[in-house]
Amino acid sequence: MLDDQTPSVAATSLAQADAIATQLHQRKDAWVNVSIPDRITYLQRCLDGVRAVAPEWATAACHAKGIDPASTLAGEEWFVGPTATIAGLRSLMLTLEAKGQPKPVRLRSHSGQTIAQVFPTNVMERLLWRGFVGEVWLQPEKPPTQGKVYRQKPAAGTLALVLGAGNVSSIAPLDALHKLFAEDAVVLLKMNPVNAYMGALLETAFQPLRKDGFLEIVYGGAELGRHLCQHPLVDTIHITGSHHTHDAIVWGSTPDEQAQRKTTNQPLTTKPITSELGCVTPVIVIPGHWSEADIAFQARHVAGMVVHNASFNCAAAKVIITAKGWAQRDVFLAQLQQELAKTPARKAYYPGAQERYQAFLERYPQAIALGQSEPTTVPWTLMPAVPAQAGEYALTQEAFCGVLADVSLNATDAGDFLTQAIAFVNEQVWGNLSCTILVDTRTQKHLGAEFEAAIAQLKYGAIGINVWSAVLFSLPVFSWGAFPGNSLQDITSGHGVVHNAYLFEHPQKSVLRAPFRIFPLPIWFARHPNLLQLAQRFTDFQAKPSWRQLLKVALASLRG
Asked: Which of 25, 293, 485, 507 is 20–30 Å from 344 (CA)?
């Protein structure tokens, strides 16, 4: 494992932050009046900037996470960093070319709810994502209106504070871009201390927006965050992080203060606040008749959902839910255990991982550690036979480290299991950000309308069917955020959405459907043999799509 080569970053003083907030405040009305053609120019220049720093960006993230930048695993940092950011920039360009109202592939209705198909949109996407279909489901009885800020220009601008996430390097810039181009706000971005090293690269890549006073980046910890949240010039706040951080901002710094303020409904701030705050992410495995190849594929699929980014993802698989009467259940779980055991441990770079891991071990002595625990790593760990009951620790605490709870429901039939599983995840598993369902083609066809009704009943903001739900984060046409309805007092996975390149005004959730066996090998699978080259080729394609670049992506993917 590489030594940490992460550079230290000087903190922004409160006085410096005040001066920056003042400068941005003075430019917020000017941003509202920037024309669509000029905004497209900003996006293109920033896209070029991200492409220019992409190799350095990926290398910096690799060093921080203990990855050899020349190894195939380094491709992961390309995909979740510059590649995802470029995809977001290009999607916004297409949105603005359509004057903020890009036309969905098609619209349909399900029980009074409008569903917009948004993916794939062209021949290249259909070839890259064979068999995939993606939708944004709108809130029931709401119209499919789009791009309000481009239909009804606000009279005055706003200054948005974005509190960046520390785990995935594209989150902070994508959140900032959403505030700028979807909500018409200038942005003060505070980097998370965990990946503050990314700030200098973002400063370079987004220099066109910074130069004209529409975006700036600051550095510091909780003190700076509190100061800016209470700053009189900050109009709105967005946070990607934990619900604990959210509650500290809104309700106070101690449990007693939070409880008292919640009881009297006296938040520390009444500024509009949007948030994406994590989830105990479930994977629902519908029983069917699977071949040996099916079992091997899906075991590797779930393992990839656990180990990606050392499991420091809000959408990392944390609960695997199966039918107790499924004849192939034990074989599948044994194969999953083997896949995790074959995957090398990763540096536990995110603070508190060891403490969170030990808390799970104390409660689940039956846990199976698939590797040795070291000071710098957390072994992939399967927790068998976790009870499917209300309040269970593994179902109510987001681990943010490499553990996976095994839960079985008392069912054999696919339909009975599906009914139980939907109720279980909606009511007993904490969070409502994202979930994944695995179902073979024959079983899904047999379930028919029952399966579609189950999707409608799921209270999650992002749903992957035969595809890891985190993939919806990487495709900016989808809305990304919690299922609507969380209150400030019980914020759970957050409030509001980001990405949402179609600029739908009333998104409820996004659904991505994939074939039961995806081909070629998906990029999020553990131990992908050609990930680095594939990521570099895909970055080039996203930056400037062409048939030549598409062919390079196809050849690299087939080598996987």
From this structure: 293
